[in-house]
Design goal:
Length: 389
């Protein structure tokens, strides 16, 4: 588990660069703005394309080996990211980093699914893994912020973390997962796998989960990215408060991930989790829209983080258990793509809603709260029929 948590430095790749964004834009003031924007958000776009490919490759390539390839690409694209001070060179390097993100996250989830065959254990481990990832994100964000304040180019030196991660993966993880070993040895599990491969992917249920995951994370990410704008618009706080609120969200995300296993282990509670998650998000955005104060912002970010932790762990775990075992890597890779797409589109959705309304962040928050209230209805109706035990 420690090795897989360390590997989450790769999905946190954007946090290495974001603190240096202002200085980078100033340094390349005459460069193509679209290219500069791609340096920040492009990896998410590349990741959502690569993730399904990685999901398919896991059926023919050992997951550990594929995971190591992802970490190597992460190191190459990151360490050499500023070796040539040219925007288009940096775009190419960030594409490599995006490919690494698209490989590593699905591999980690697929390995967890191979190792923990019991649904209760899987839910617990998915929660712990996501909690570890939120902790890694907080460490990366703080460290990158400190480094960027000294010299923005130095943030690329942080990508050297790929080296110890690779060493840990080599020595701390077995060559094959138990599931891969069973297939290789031709045991009863392998025979069962043959029959599983003949089963059809439950696309209706999978699509419903992916759609819910997409909408939920899209809404959750909006305020995370624009909290500084929200505070400035209301004149209730500075960038320092924005950083504190981001930390609040990270803390509650961690808490939610840690308690998720206990919730997921109870079938009755599990059925109501999608409804509860959208209820919590709606409550958070109503706080932002109707209580435009510092206490309202604190409550909103805390609730948003709680929903974020539950949502990531829930959909990753639920998707893994509703699909045939042999198709779980591909299904989980689709969840990674959906998450990447949600994060990529967040700023565009905010800009659109901000433009069609009165032009305030509070209006955007009100609209998103209503969206989540609407999503509560199908979430409740669908998952009341959930027969997964």
């Amino acid at each position: 588990m420690f090795a897989l948590i360390m590997a989450t430095f790769v999905p946190m790749a954007d946090l290495f660069i974001i603190p240096a964004a202002g200085s980078m834009y100033g340094h390349f003031a005459d460069a193509n703005v679209s290219a500069l924007n791609f340096i920040l958000s492009g990896p998410a776009l590349i990741a959502l394309i690569v993730a399904p490919i990685a999901g398919k490759l896991m059926s023919v390539i050992r997951k550990k080996f594929l995971l190591m390839i992802g970490v190597v690409l992460f190191g190459i694209g990151g360490i050499l990211g500023i070796a040539v001070e040219n925007v288009y060179y940096m775009v190419a390097m960030r594409c490599i980093v995006g490919a690494a993100v698209g490989i590593v996250a699905p591999c980690c989830m697929a390995i967890l699914n191979d190792v923990f065959t019991d649904e209760k254990q899987l839910g617990t481990m998915m929660g712990i893994w996501n909690a570890g990832m939120s902790t890694v994100g907080a460490v990366v964000g703080i460290t990158a912020g400190i480094v960027a304040a000294t010299q923005w180019k130095a943030v690329f030196e942080l990508f050297w973390v790929a080296v110890p991660i690779l060493v840990i993966l080599i020595f701390a993880m077995p060559k094959r997962t138990p599931y891969e070993a069973a297939r290789a040895e031709g045991t009863a599990a392998a025979a069962a796998d043959v029959s599983v491969k003949k089963e059809k992917m439950p696309w209706n249920q999978l699509s419903f989960d992916l759609f819910g995951y997409f909408i939920g994370e899209l809404v959750i990410c909006v305020i995370y990215y624009v909290i500084a704008i929200y505070l400035a618009e209301l004149s209730i706080g500075s960038a320092a408060l924005a950083g504190t609120l981001a930390t609040v969200m990270t803390a509650t995300t961690f808490v939610a991930c840690m308690i998720f296993g206990a919730l997921f282990a109870k079938p009755v509670v599990r059925k109501f989790l999608p409804f509860a998650m959208f209820f919590i998000i709606a409550l958070a955005y109503f706080c932002f829209a109707l209580i435009p104060t510092v206490p309202g912002a604190v409550a909103g970010m805390a609730l948003n983080g709680l929903a974020n932790g539950l949502m990531m762990a829930y959909y990753q775990s639920h998707i893994a258990i509703i699909v045939p075992k042999s198709q779980a890597p591909f299904a989980l890779s689709l969840s990674s793509s959906v998450l990447g797409m949600a994060m990529f589109l967040t700023t565009y959705v905010f800009t659109f809603l901000h433009g069609v309304g009165p032009g305030t962040v509070t209006f955007v928050c009100l609209v998103l709260a209503i969206v989540c209230v609407v999503m509560m209805i199908p979430a409740l109706l669908r998952h009341l029929k959930d027969t997964v035990k």
